[in-house]
Amino acid sequence: MTVEEHEVLARAEILGEALQQLKDEKDPGEFIRLLTECNTMIRQITGIDYGGVCAPAGGCDCGGKC
């Protein structure tokens, strides 16, 4: 794995931890809005549809595994 790939994974892990904390603090509607914004930014920057890969059908009810 390249240094760049390691950096991307490290930043994704940090984002995941921050989103988990926010999930515990925000109401579900507000959290889904924030998650959608994050997925949009990830798609714009990387070209990867992270939301399509992560979220199960019917919304994000993955128990923090996204």
From TrEMBL:
Matches recorded under Pfam families: DUF8067
Protein name: YlbF family regulator
Source species: Methanofollis tationis
